[in-house]
Predict the structure of Phosphoribulokinase/uridine kinase domain-containing protein.
Amino acid sequence: MAQQSVDFDGLVSAASERLTLPGRQFIGIAGAPGSGKSTTVERLYDALITQQPDAVAILPMDGFHYDDAVLHDMGRRPWKGAPDTFDVGGFVSVLKRLRDQNETRVAVPVFDRDLEISRGSARIIPDDVKLILVEGNYILLNRAPWNALEKSFDLTVMIDVPEDELRRRLRARWEHFGLSEDDIAHKLDGNDLPNGRAVIHESRAADLVYQQLSDSV
């Protein structure tokens, strides 16, 4: 389908159409850090389950973070969240299992934001789930190894937020966590915003573009 811009109601409508199709459907929802992916996906999930309870599940990319010990050994702990700090092969493998009609219950990892670690096999997606909302920064990134996900989605969405708004939201996030100005500067200009530019400029064109301009992130 041709790329088109949608508001939230349009996003719900497009996702609802997927629930009417045979077989399991996957919607990939991407966006830069601070673009409001999690909030958007949770709102979308809440809207969809009013139509078909238990028919929708969320699969966040963040569950595939490398553990901090692995990142330390890689020399990449300060850049946690960059494209090379995720188990992309594991992500691809789980998506393939979720496509496999012979799989009845697939265990997926969940990122614990309180502990800042990924917990393996923390959630079960059963075979009666018809629609899976896959969300993450890099799921449309057109570079190896992320481009292995290219054929994983039936519909793709990019959340569009201007960089100055991303900066404002991300600064507020790190201030909320009590980081020092030096740490915030590293987070913003050393990691988050460069990662966001990669998402914006190096991702494949999505089917739908959603402009998320609310204050929630």
Remarks:
- The mean pLDDT is 94.
- The CA atoms of residues 151 and 196 lie 22 Å apart.
- The longest strand covers residues 117-126.
- The longest helix spans residues 181-202.
